[in-house]
Design a protein that fits this description.
- By secondary structure, the chain is an alpha/beta fold.
- It is 44% helix and 12% strand.
- It has 2 domains: 19-66; 83-294, Glycoside hydrolase/deacetylase (TIM Barrel, Alpha-Beta Barrel).
- The protein has helices spanning 19-41, 45-66, 83-87, 104-113, 124-129, 131-139, 160-178, 196-203, 222-230, 256-269, 277-280, and strands at 8-9, 90-98, 118-122, 143-146, 184-185, 206-207, 212-213, 238-242, 273-275, 288-289.
- The strands form 3 sheets. Strands 2, 3, 4, 7, 8 and 9 form a 6-stranded parallel β-sheet that branches.
- The chain is elongated, with a radius of gyration of 21 Å.
Length: 295
């Protein structure tokens, strides 16, 4: 029997609904109770007209907040590094949608050359297809975090079970490959719905977005992407790039490969140190042994 210890896993945390979510739950409960009591109370079309209007407005607000990646109205969201990390001159490079065998190894080499650390939000299916790349990310001092199992375009429309499958499957895949369980989660495209935060709480995961992004999946001009990332660049920023789905530059190469060395030079010129999210953000509680379902 192997004596190799299982990777550690974040401990589940309590789900604390935000005021917006509590208000939405109260509205749904009130309308449901009114529907049951309609025969007794004699509620007419005027009441139900207002009730329907409030119901539609509530869902519109929830939908809008889910389409706003940096919002905290649906739950906690790391949009910047803590003040202590900023005081140390730290920033976080986060790299999404990989691993990609044509891009990720070259990004790792660039990071090594600049003695920089980054956080890779990996897709579970891609990680399973390229396990050596996931191991290389971890071995070379970077962090592997959860970016869902399949990165479905309709992620933000999934219900609780669908979200739990996407998050849980990626957690198991990435933990087994990287040797430690992800602590942070980033939703595909940053889009989510009110059902995600309870799922993350059960998994002990923390939502992380960004301070600014380069839109390097859409723009192939390195100067434009770099300008978006470095505009008002400051300690504590969380920056978003992609090793998967990166737009090609004029030379046909993924634009991230032209942007990253210039970005790392800009950080060095400002005396900023790229670190992982895990290193910059103190853990709320110690990790627990990983259950067999994540083995």
């Amino acid at each position: 029997m192997s004596t190799t210890p299982l990777p550690s896993a974040p401990v589940p945390r309590p789900w604390r609904p935000t005021p917006l979510v509590l208000l939405s739950l109260a509205l749904h409960a009130a309308l449901g109770l009114a529907l049951l009591l309609t025969p007794l109370l004699g509620l007419g079309w005027t009441f139900w007209g207002w009730g329907l209007a409030l119901f539609v407005l509530d869902h519109a607000i929830l939908c809008a907040t889910g389409l706003w990646p940096r919002s905290t109205l649906l739950g906690p969201n790391h949009r910047r590094l803590p003040a202590a990390a900023a005081a140390r001159g730290e920033v976080a490079l986060t790299i999404d949608d990989g691993p990609d065998p044509a891009v990720t190894p070259r990004i790792l080499d660039l990071l090594d050359h600049h003695s920089a650390r980054a956080t890779f939000f990996c897709i579970g299916d891609r990680a399973a297809a390229h396990p050596d790349l996931v191991r290389a990310i971890a071995i070379r001092g970077h962090r592997v975090e959860n970016h869902s199992q399949g990165h479905p375009l309709r992620f933000s429309t999934l219900g609780p079970r669908g979200l739990a499958r996407e998050v849980g499957a990626a957690q198991a895949t990435l933990a087994a490959l990287a040797g430690s369980a992800p602590r942070f989660f980033r939703a595909p495209a940053g889009l989510r719905n009110p059902f995600l935060e309870p799922v993350l709480a059960r998994c002990g995961l923390e939502l992380a977005t960004w301070t600014r992004r380069g839109f390097d999946t859409r723009c192939g001009d390195a100067a434009t992407v770099l300008a978006r990332l470095t505009h008002n660049l400051a300690a504590g920023d969380i920056l978003l790039l992609h090793d998967g789905n990166a737009a090609p530059g004029p030379d046909g190469e993924p634009v991230v490969l032209a942007v990253l060395p210039r970005l790392l030079d800009a950080l060095a010129a400002q005396g900023l140190t790229p670190v992982t999210l895990d290193a910059a953000i103190p853990a709320q509680r110690p990790a627990a042994p990983l259950s067999s379902s994540f083995a």
